[in-house]
Amino acid sequence: MLRAFLRNDKGAAAVEFAVIVPVLAAILVGLMVAWEPATAMLQMRAAVHAGATYVRQGGTNDTHTRSVVISSWEDKPASSSVSVSRQCLCGQTVSACTTICADQTPPSVYVTVAATSSNPEFAFGQSLSSSEVVRVR
Sorting pLDDT into bands at 50, 70 and 90, what band is 124? Predict the structure, then answer.
């Protein structure tokens, strides 16, 4: 009788199912938790890239660059911020953008387009940030 009991494989599929389902459920929940911040990061990067592209194509108005980023940002969270800054360098030295460098060349101009966002609804309260630096001259 004991041998017959040990050879009986009825219900084996139910046991396998009971073992596998929690593992698959944990994987699914993990993907759902990671999906929203990943999507938000991609949307933020696309918006920052749109602003940097505007600058690369000759845009000189930093306020308009900021507007391009904001209007390009799909599902922009309320807690997000966008900044555009301009820096002029003569070699490694920061200088005014209207002056001529010591070697009689105009300074190199760099525009930084940056965005940050913190969404408490994300898992672990993640903060996201993205930036691109464009050399204009």
Answer: low
**What predicted TM-score, i.e. pTM, was given to this entire model?**
0.75
Question: Does residue 124 sit in helix, strand or coil?
Answer: helix
Domain ranges of the chain: 2-135
List beta partners, residue 83.
114
What average pLDDT does the segment 52-71 reach?
A: 93
Is the per-residue pLDDT at 37 higher than 90? no
The partner residues of 112 in beta bridges, in order of sequence, read 85, 133
> Which DSSP letter does residue 93 get?
E
Alpha helices in the chain (DSSP H): 2-7, 12-56, 62-72
* R_g (Cα) of the chain, nearest Å: 27
Beta-carbon contacts of 56 under 8 Å, excluding residues fewer than 6 positions away, are: 134
Query: What pLDDT is stored for residue 49 in this prediction?
Result: 96
In angstroms, the Cα distances linking 77 to 43, 80, 94, 111, 117 are 11, 6, 34, 24, 7
Q: Distance (Å, rounded) from C-alpha 63 to C-alpha 130?
A: 18
Give the span between the Cα atoms of 109 and 94, in whole angstroms.
10
